[in-house]
Structures are given as C-alpha cells and as structure tokens.
Amino acid sequence: MLLNTTHNNKDNNKLINNLVGKPFSFLQIIKLKGIGSKRMIVDDVSPNMASILNTVSDTNYGNIELRPKGILIHITKGLKNFTWAIPYYKLVIYKTNGSSIHSNGKFIHFRNNKTFRENKKFFNKLMNEKVKFDEQYNFSPF
C-alpha cells in the first residue's frame, strides 16, 4: 500500500498500523539496537511506482523502518514524502547488485554503494524479524 505521508493524516496512520503494526516501543527499539536503516539511493522502481520518483535527474533516496508485522519504505520526492507499507507475509527480498524489495507486483531496487553496504547489519536484522514472524505460523506441507 503506497501512501502520501507528507502531512500527518489519522486515516493513513490507522491504515499503516492495521497493516504492519504499531511502532515499536522505546524499550523494544533499544533491545533491537535501532529499527531504521540509513538512507539508501533508489536505483529503480516498478513502472506502477514511477510517479513517486523525481522526474529530473535528481538522486532519489529511501530508507526502511521495521514494524512488528512488516516494514515501511519511506521515499522522498522533492517536498513530498511517500510510504510503502509491506507486511512480512508479502515481502520478498532479492540481493542482486544491491537489494531489490518486491511485494504485490511492485518493486524498488536500492543501489549497491557505500550507503547500502553500511546497512548490511540492518538487512540481517530485517531478515531475522521476518523469520521470527513466519515461525509464528506453522507452514508444513506434510
């Protein structure tokens, strides 16, 4: 779900909290040693998300925030802010010359550069949280 979060909107906050859970408490943030990634360069997005990128040759930046039941990807376009909420059960991550995050036929690709490599610990934490979430549901084919 892609939302314009430039201005604080109670309806948007309610949708996000229902989809990916309420933000972690202060103590949980300390236990997790942070819940946000550093700023990364957006290399490419799916055609149905092209409207959230800068049309001129400016660099597009994004960052990821962990939530109890999913993640939020924050993207800035000029003075506007957009948030893409992805629940863990729909999240797919590919590591191909950077990182590519997919969900519901949409994707965003982050460039492999210094800022991306600084987020290696964050992506490990993200994968651990996704595994913990998936372990709650026993998916046994047999």
- Class by alpha and beta content: alpha+beta
Low-confidence segments, ≥5 residues, pLDDT <50?
Answer: none
Give the overall shape, derived from the CA principal axes. globular
- Measured by DSSP, the beta-strand proportion falls in 25-35%
Largest sheet: number of strands, sense, barrel closure = 8 strands, antiparallel
Kindly state the mean pLDDT as a whole number? 88
Number of helices: 4
Q: Give the strand line-up of the largest sheet.
A: 1-5-4-3-2-8-7-6
Radius of gyration: 15 Å
Give the strand tally.
Answer: 8
Helix and strand sequence: EHHEEEEEEEHH
- The amount of helix comes to 25-40%
Measured between the Cα atoms of the first and last residue, the distance is 33 Å
Provide structural commentary:
The protein has 142 residues and is of the alpha+beta class. The chain contains 4 helices and 8 strands.
